[in-house]
Hints:
The complex is a heterodimer of chains A (353) and B (294). Chain A has one domain (24-301): ABC transporter involved in vitamin B12 uptake, BtuC (Orthogonal Bundle), CATH 1.10.3470. Chain A contains 16 helices and no strands. Chain A has helices at 2-21, 28-54, 61-79, 90-108, 113-133, 157-179, 181-191, 193-198, 203-229, 234-237, 240-253, 260-278, 282-299, 304-328, 336-339, 344-352. The radius of gyration of chain A is 22 Å and the shape is globular. The relative contact order of chain A is 0.14. Chain B has 294 residues and is mostly helical. Helix content of chain B is 74%, strand content 3%. Chain B contains eleven helices and two strands, in the order ααααββααααααα. In chain B, strands 1-2 form a two-stranded antiparallel ribbon. The chains are: A mainly alpha (353), B mainly alpha (294). Chain A binds chain B through residues 55, 57, 107-108, 110-115, 117-119, 121-123, 125-126, 129, 133, 240, 244, 247-248, 251, 255, 281, 283-284, 286-287, 289-291, 293-294, 297-298, 301-302, 351-352, and chain B through 29, 34-35, 83, 86-91, 93-95, 97-99, 101-106, 108-110, 112-113, 222, 226, 229-230, 232-233, 237, 264-265, 267-268, 270-272, 274-275, 278-279, 282, 291, 294.
Amino acid sequence: MKSLALWRGVGLAMLLAVAAIIPLGNDVVLTEVGVLVLMYVGAAVAWNIFSGFTGYISLGAAVFFGSGVYTVALITKHLNLVGGVVFALYPLGGLVAAVIAVPFGLIALRVRRHTFVVVTIAVFFIFQLMASNFSWTGGAVGLIPPFLNWDAATVWNPFYYTALIIAVVSAVLAWAIWGSRFGLQLRAIRDDEDRARGLGVKTMRVKLAAFVISAFILGTLGGLYFYFQSDALPQYAFNPFFDLTIALMAFLGGFGTLAGPIFGALLLEPYLGWAQQQVTNTYVAQVVLGALFLVVIIFLPRGLLPTVGEKLTAIQASRQRRAAEQKTGPPPGVPIGAATAGSPAEQTTRSAS
Amino acid sequence: MGTFFQAISDGVLEGGVYGLMAVGLTLIFGVLDIINIAQGIMVILGAYLSYVLWTHLHIDVFVGLLITIPTMFIIGVAIQYLFIRPLRGRERTSMSLLACYAVAIITEGLLYQHFGSNYLSMNTYWTSPKAEIKIFGYYLPYIYLLGFALAVLFVVAIYLMLYRTQFGRSVRATMQDHTAARLVGIDVNRVAAITFGIGVGVTAAGGMVFGELNAFNPNTGYDLISRLLAIVILGGMGSIGGALGASVLVLTLASLVDVYWNPEWSTVVFYGALVLVLVFRPQGLFGRKEARAQ
Lengths: 353, 294
C-alpha cells in the first residue's frame, strides 16, 4: 500500500511538471489544445465536487459556465477594458455564477434523482433562451472581446497558466473537501440522504454549498473561455454538449472519485479536439462520442480508475497469497486472500447488490 | 375575442399531440423507473420515417403509420434490450438516463449524416391550405383534428391495455413493486422491454403529426424533449392522465402567449410553469405525494 501512495505522488509530480513546461516549447497549437484540456480538467473536477460526491447528476453545469462567459463579456464591453487586467475578471464570472447557483439550487435541490436531472436541463434551456432573446446579451450575434495585442507565438501562454492554476486549485479543493467533515456529509447524502438527515446532516445546506462551490469554478472557467474563444454566443456559452462531455469525462475516469474526472478529461479532450480537426463533418465525432459513452456505462460503470485499481489490488493479493503458499504449503481449506476484510471479491459483490 | 378562441382551440388540439408523446415518456418512467431522454429525437426519427415514406414511396402519412409504428416499437425494444437492461449497480437509474442521452446523440448524429441540417417540412395534402374546416368562424386544419383524435385513440388504447388486459395487470404490478411482481411470477424484463417499445412506438404517431405541423431538423429533438420533460413533471411523473392534462394546459398557455406577446417567449411558459410548480408542489400537479422508493 505504501508503494502505491509513493507511485501516486511521483506520477502526480511528473504530470504537473509536464503540464508546466508544455508552453515553453512555443508550439502554438499544442498550447491551444492544452488550454482546452486544462479547462475541461477543471470543469470535470468542479462537476464532480457536486455531482460525484452527492450523487445528484446535474446536466446544468453549462448554466454556470455560460453565466461566467456573459458576465466577463458584459463587463469588458461596458468598461472598455483591454490588456492583462482582464485576467482579474475571471473570478467575477465565478462570483455571478455562484450567486445564480443559490436560487437555482434552492429550487432544484428540493427534488431528487431523475426529477433533479430534468430540472437542471430545464433551467439550462431557460438560460440559453434568455441569452439568445435579450437585447443586452447581443442576441444571436453575441458579444466580442477587445482585441488582445499580444505576440502570436505566445498568445496562449497566459491562458494556459491561468487554466492550469484553476485546474490545480480545483483538484486540491476537491481533495480537501473529500477528506473533510463537509465531504463526509456529502458522501453520506450520496449513500442515503434520508438516513444522513436522520443522523443530523443539514442536507439542504450541505448540498447547496457544494452546488455553489462547483458553480464558482465553472463560472471562472467561463470567463477564461470568453477571451480564449473570443466570442460569447448563446449556442457555445450554453452548450448542451458541455454538460454531456464533462459528465462523460467523470464517468470514464471514475464517477465520484478524486482522480477519475482528471484522468477522464486528460483522456477524452485530446480525442475530441483531434476528432474535430480530422473529420470533415463533426457528426461522425458525435456518433463516436455517444458510442463511447454507451460502452463506458455498460462495461465500465464505475469508471476506468476504480476498475483498474481493483484489478491491480487483486493481482497483488494473489501474488501475496502465492508467496504465502510457497512458504507454508497449500492452505488448509480457506484461501488467505478471502479472509482479509475488503478484498476485491467482497467489494465487487457489495457494489453489485 | 376571435383570436382568443382561436388560440385556445389551437392550444388544446396541439396539446393532444404533445400529450401523446408525453404519455409514452411517462409510461416508460412508471414501469422502468428511467427517463427516456431520447424520446425527443425518437419523435423526430418518426417524423423522418413518415417523410421518407411519403417522398419516396408516396405512402400517405396516416397509412404510413402502419409501417412506422411497428418500426419504432422494434427500435424501442432493441434500445431497452441492448443498452438499458445490461446496466447494473447502485447508480443504475442515473446511468440509464445517460445511456438514453447517448442513444439520442448517436441518433441525432446519424440523422444529420443522412439528411443534413436543413429544415424539412412535409408537403402533403394535410399541410395544404384547403385541408381545413370552418366551424363557427374559426379555421381548424384537419391535421389538428386528426392529430388530436389520434392522440385520444392511442391514449384510450394504452389505458385499456393497462386496465383491461392480463399484460396490463403485469405492467401495473411492475409499476407498483418490481420485486413483488417478480415474486408472483411476472417476467419483469419482458414487461420492461414491451413497455419501452410501446412508449417509443407512439412517438411514430406523434412525430408524424409534429412533422406535419412544424418544420424540423435533427436538432429539433432537444427543444422537444425539454418541452416533454416539463409536461411530464408538471403532470406528475408516471401519471398518464396527468401527462395529458398538463400538456393541454401548457400548450394552451403557450398558444396564448404566442398570440398576445411573442412566439419567442412561448417556450418560456413551459419552463416557467415547471419552476413554479416545483416550488409549490414538487410531486407535480397530479402526482402522488410519495415518490417511488429506489
